[in-house]
Amino acid sequence: MAILAAAAETSSSSSHAGHSQQQQLASTTCKAPASSSSSSEEPNKGVRHLCERGVTALPPRYVLPPSDRPAPPAAPRGIPVIDMARLRSTAPSERAAELARVDAACRDLGFFQAVNHGAGDKARAMLDVAARFFALPFEERAAHMSPDIRAPVRYGTSFNQLNDGVLCWRDFLKLLCNPARLDDVLPSWPHNPSDLREVMSVYARANQGLFRELMKAALEAMGITGQGVLEELDCGTQMMMVNCFPACPEPELTLGMPPHSDYGFLTLLLQDQVNGLEVCQGDDDWLLVDPLPGALIVNVGDHLEIFSNGRYKSVLHRVRVNSTQLRISVASLHSLPPERVIGPAPELLADGTQRRYMDTDLTTFLKYLASSEGKHKTFLQSRRITT
């Protein structure tokens, strides 16, 4: 379950720097000779730091018990594709057909890929500056480390490093970027690379617009207005998790992220072309997602499952790592304002349908997260009403 709290160079020099920094980042594959202290390296310094120190075997705190280790991956497969150009169509039949696809994807798999979204240039720039951030010297990255899961800007490692019994092979930069307050939080974002704030804020605004389009489509697909929820989402929460999954010396023993579901309404995932995301289809059956070039992967979060009274599914997913390739991804999580209580949409209960979930809010979620590992769907299960 993901955590919430959430002067540019010239284009020619930025492009050159980005290329060289990405080469530097990708070349760190944890294959250099390890020092005698590598295996006892402080885990909270992160996996990039371990790789830079030359670790050649997985430190014990990263080794999963045999029952939790990923089986060898199956061949990557496609997931439902939503064409946003068709959602924007003025032809009623074309839009209706695409809405039906949105509804089916959210009900069945809980995941789909969005194409023709129009944010390609911003997405490519986002991946580039993210790679350059993780290629910075450790001291610069570490300046943003914090044990506080509520911190609006936080560099960290693993999944929930304060509570994880076994650490995960991931470093992340969390940025709170709520749409109504983005200009207020920008000064707290990292100032290196020098174009990070500009590039990431431009992407954050574009991502919020795409989220609103997709939520409008989801409400229409359910046949409800949401009673003003779109306007509330405009002033809601948006958080970006910028993830780095370095090449791992023993990928069969660990995961980049454990099985979890996301807390919000929708998550929009930007990733490079390195496979890693797996979606659970039940009974330990994991689908390795084959990403379409330029697509955004969209998944239903816990709040939308609650709001839809169970019609749309917040599905377990995880991230596996590999021994040769670094992977970069950016998960943008969107939901209502922190103080807003979330329950099933009243329109869905108007005919006497029984509610399936208790109301919840962000405070309840954060308290839960601070006291447990938050893996699997345990938080959502704690809100279910059993009869």
UniProtKB/TrEMBL annotation:
It is found in: Cytoplasm; Nucleus. This is Fe2OG dioxygenase domain-containing protein. Its cofactor is L-ascorbate; Fe cation. It comes from the Eukaryota. Keywords: Cytoplasm, Dioxygenase, Iron, Metal-binding, Nucleus, Oxidoreductase. Residues 1-27 have a biased composition (Low complexity). Involved in the regulation of shoot development and salicylic acid (SA) homeostasis. Residues 1-47 are annotated as: Disordered. SUPFAM superfamilies: Clavaminate synthase-like. Belongs to the iron/ascorbate-dependent oxidoreductase family. One of its GO terms (cellular component) is cytoplasm. PROSITE patterns: FE2OG_OXY (PS51471). The keyword Oxidoreductase applies. GO terms for molecular function: dioxygenase activity; metal ion binding. InterPro entries: DIOX_N, IPNS-like_FE2OG_OXY, IPNS-like_sf, Oxoglu/Fe-dep_dioxygenase_dom, Plant_2OG-oxidoreductases. The keyword Heme does not apply. It comes from Triticum aestivum (Wheat).
